[in-house]
Amino acid sequence: MAFASSSVAERPFAPATTAGDVSTIVYRSRAVAPLSDQDLQRLMRTAQARNGREGITGVVLYDERQFFQWLEGPEEGVKRVMGSIQNDRRHTDLEVLTHYASPTRRFSGWDMKLAARGANPALWQSDVLEPPRAIIDDLRRRPASAPSLLAKLMPLPVAAGDSPLATSLAGKPLGNTTVSILKDVLLKTVIPLLHHHEPAAADAEDVPVNPRAAELAELLVASDQAASLSLIRELRGKDVEGRHLFAPLFEPAARALGDLWGDDFCSEVEVTLGLCRIQTAVRLLGADTRRSVVSSVQPKVLIVPAPGELHQLVAVLDSEWLWSEGWSPQSEFPATDRALGDLLSASWIDVLDLSLSAAFRRKDSLVRLTETIKQARRASLNPALLVLVGGRTFVEVEGVGTAVGADIVSRTSLNVDRYMVQGMKTVGEGLHCTEQCEDAVG
Ligand SMILES: Cc1cc2nc3c(=O)[nH]c(=O)nc-3n(C[C@H](O)[C@H](O)[C@H](O)COP(=O)(O)O)c2cc1C
């Protein structure tokens, strides 16, 4: 059988577990031939019997010959079962997507459930579940996101009268759990990931998304902000700059907040509060960041959330990134297109950085954004104004940036300075500092 990735033991961020830790592995693979209901039942019977003995829980999703499986349990047991699975001739191209240790299980009580569309429930009773169409679609589009997508198959606990998140996460007794999980995520998963995968390109798809960003989003909605901030600062250590948490952790956590809202797990207000908590963390981390030498020649950048957009996280991340690169962007919050036009006609601006929400897709805002960009170009003193757009919709929907009339789409704040310089070079002549700016960025 061919393996698309290194073995589990060789994963660079495979964590060493301590007693009581739950070892979790998520992988994907492809069935060598389509499996019938009977084939799947045989597979599941063996799996459940052995998982029961080994203390392993999880879920396996089967969709058009693709398997995605979440396995969790004691490290030794998970290793043994994973060894058998890797040698199983019913599937091939096995790729481990994540492997980490944590203090909690995600699928307690499921000694292995099958998630498959159209499976006959009469045959399976409670061992099968119908995965939501949206999860299947997302898995087909973004198979590497399987860890956070499979996690959604386990419903969060619901208590009468309260939102599930408020019930499961809010309140004092959970404070220590929250901190310990957050500490665990950062110490064992995020920090090693940063050391091993320093991202080079400013493209969201090249950045290793932390598989537990979704879990962080859940914690952010109701967690103890003061404790989590001091923890982030403590764990970041001396060598890792706070801004290197933007792409792998904060941006996907913001999208996960939007997903929680989409799945009715929290309200819009809770999403906005969660984003504010990320913003606060970003600002405080920024206060500790060493700034590059301030460049004497740099583009004039105006950073604004699109008029009408309440969420400011993208603007904050871009502004922090540029500031730490030694740039001095101007951040404003114009409420209307006219107010934005006034800013652009009052002084020379090379780059307009316009953003929509980092959490929501904001499809309804695109017509308005098109008009905003048109008016901004008309009002600008700079006839070759470079317009850069950012936000969740531009990360996930191909072609939207061009459709609204932008010059560049920024999928992440990581290296946004380089995108701007590159864009200024290609947008045309007449920019008053293109050459020097390129030198300044190197
Ligand atoms: C996609 C897939 C998922 C599987 N999941 C499990 C599992 O969760 N637990 C398990 O014991 N076996 C699982 N199996 C079956 C194992 O590969 C293996 O057949 C079984 O554990 C018996 O192991 P043995 O032949 O080494 O005794 C799975 C097989 C496939 C193809």
TrEMBL record:
UniProt cross-references to SMART domains, sorted A to Z: BLUF
UniProt signal peptide: none
Domain BLUF residues, every copy: 22-113
Gene Ontology MF term list: blue light photoreceptor activity; FAD binding
Record-linked SUPFAM superfamilies: Acylphosphatase/BLUF domain-like
One Pfam family it belongs to: BLUF
Gene3D superfamilies according to UniProt: 3.30.70.100, Cobalamin-binding domain (3.40.50.280)
Name of the molecule in the record: BLUF domain-containing protein
Species of provenance: Muricoccus nepalensis
Lineage, uppermost ranks: Bacteria, Pseudomonadati, Pseudomonadota, Alphaproteobacteria, Acetobacterales
